[in-house]
Amino acid sequence: MNEPYGRIAFNDEKRLINVPFLETLDVLDPAQSSDKLVAVDSNDARSRPFNLLRAQIIKKLGPTHGKLIGITSAAPGAGKSFVASNLAASLGMLSNRKTYLLDLDLRRASVAGIFGIRGNVGLTEFLMGDDVELKSIGRRIGTTNLAVFPSYPAMVNSAELMVGDRFESLIAVMRALPADAIVIVDLPPIFANDDAILVAGQLDGVVMIVEQGVTTKKQLQSALQFIEPTPLLGTVFNRFNGGVGDPYGYGGKYEGYYSTKT
Q: Has keyword Acyltransferase (predicted)?
């Protein structure tokens, strides 16, 4: 049943969870974003690889009508959050799509920093069962069709949260979004913990980020086995030198992925 302001209510046994439609969210000025967000300007040559990736993702999802896509890597440091954020930004530039970006790398969340979102209450608190509405977490990026739902780094039992009732409700809410919506989920690296493996089973496909010269063939093969049977939508070579004129390689490395330093 439709709620006021175009929200649909789900009951997670304790409270109603409203679908956070893009139009209901607070707006964030894209000028606050960091220099890692390069896909918001279609005139910027650095946005081209993300526009190409956008086209491939839409093509892959077409026959299956899939909606939820995970972005991960075998090991830390491959730039998966950078790719997830810029792919989402590129998708958000389309007038016929609504894009939702979820940061589920709870222990080393970085999407908020890329977009310049400040706060301390995010998806972690929602998943822990706190009295937090998704609408209060999400931010619409300027006039684009992109909504970002950040997390903030916290040393929590993330695997437990990924199998909890609130996570099931989150997935149900995302699937209740209109047919034109695409949900990009930034996941932890496969070998950092078992979060990505647990979440992948709830998604329609996964994109694997591969760091040129660092990710080994064995790591990639093992990572792909772990996400089965979730379909692999493709692999992205990040920091790839060569090809079409200029080297595309972005994103920072994590040092001590699960250390207490942020």
A: no
